[in-house]
Design brief:
This protein has 334 residues and is mostly helical. It has one domain. Helix content is 70%, strand content 0%. It has 12 helices and no strands. It is globular. The termini are far apart.
Length: 334
């Protein structure tokens, strides 16, 4: 690897699409969700810091990180909680290099497995171990509930993601095989093909449902039920620890929404060769997906544990399995 490639890689890790862009985009995504959610309830939402309150998430993050302090925990390890939080953020940042959004991106056969490893394994493990590092009966209960939710949500989401990735290679013939970038290139054709549109619809429904549960958004905010668990997995978090946890949550939202934007909606299509128009299309599609997530969040009350699991199985896991099964059957018959 020459010096130019090394510099591009370092710039990608630190700036775009790495940590700086991840932080800014995550904060802006939080603002959009908070603003849309407030409007659905006829409230103003963030309004004080910056135009339309757009800088409020940045101010909240800075306040937690620089002003608020952490209590002196008698049990548990603050250091391990911080380490797991940073590992989760690193996993999210690494996953962005698999999307066709970075100047220095990773494209290879079966690279979707890396996406599953980063977003489906390390982010979930980091959240669980971060909460488990600080002992509290409420956080322990929240961790157990989140584990139950993720046991269904993670397989559902990534089975859904595998549907367009598989179809892009088998039906469209885009290479490399089982690649995220290949799925992005073929996504729009899959929606226009009568044989593949049904698996795509099922997979998209499953992915959006799984995202709600992975992020503990209503109606799947079971691990942080205020009336029962105070704040669940985040009960003991404050100051910098809470800032890291919130950043990890928002970064996960940003990455998952980008995955849907590229793999299911084709990213910059139909302006793949026009950079300004392509960026504008990606932003519009991203905001559309984020708005759908917010609408679902504002439309339901919190489920009980058994209701949440049943809903996940019915509207995430089963549609995802049906979508990939139907995709395999259709490709074998044609």
């Amino acid at each position: 690897m020459d010096l130019t490639s090394v510099l591009m890689l370092v710039a990608g890790i630190l700036f775009f699409p790495g940590l700086l862009t991840l932080w800014v985009a995550s904060m802006l995504s939080e603002w959009w969700v908070r603003k849309m959610f407030a409007r659905s309830q006829r409230r103003m939402g963030p309004s004080y810091v910056g135009p339309l309150g757009i800088l409020q998430p940045f101010a909240d993050f800075a306040k937690l990180l620089l002003v608020k302090s952490e209590p002196d925990y008698r049990y548990g390890s603050v250091l391990s909680a911080r380490v797991f939080g940073c590992l989760g953020l690193g996993a999210v940042a690494a996953s962005l290099f698999l999307l066709p959004v970075a100047p220095f991106s990773i494209t290879a056969r079966f690279d979707v497995i890396l996406l599953i490893y980063f977003l489906g394994v390390w982010v979930a493990v980091s959240e669980l171990l971060m909460a488990a590092s600080i002992q509290n009966p409420f956080s322990v209960k929240g961790v157990s509930r989140l584990t139950a939710i993720l046991t269904v949500a993670e397989p559902a989401f990534f089975t859904a993601v595998l549907t367009p990735v598989y179809l892009s290679h088998v039906v469209v013939g885009v290479t490399p095989e089982l690649s995220v970038s290949a799925a992005t290139d073929a996504a729009w054709y899959l929606w226009s093909n009568p044989l593949t549109v049904i698996p795509m619809v099922l997979a998209l429904i499953a992915a959006l449902t799984a995202i709600q549960s992975k992020l503990m958004l209503p109606p799947f905010n079971i691990p942080e039920a205020e009336q029962e668990l105070i704040a669940g997995v985040a009960t003991e978090f404050s100051g910098p620890l809470l800032a890291i946890f919130n950043f990890l949550h928002d970064a996960d939202l940003y990455a998952l929404t980008l995955v849907v934007t590229f793999i299911f909606l084709g990213g910059p299509h139909p302006f793949s060769n026009n950079l300004p128009a392509g960026v504008a299309v990606v932003v519009l599609k991203y905001l559309a997906v984020l708005t759908v997530i917010t609408v679902i969040k504002s439309s339901f009350g919190r489920f009980r544990v058994e209701q949440g699991i049943k809903t996940l199985v019915r509207y995430a896991l089963l549609p995802a399995v049906l979508a990939i099964t139907l995709s395999v059957v259709l490709t074998q018959l044609t």
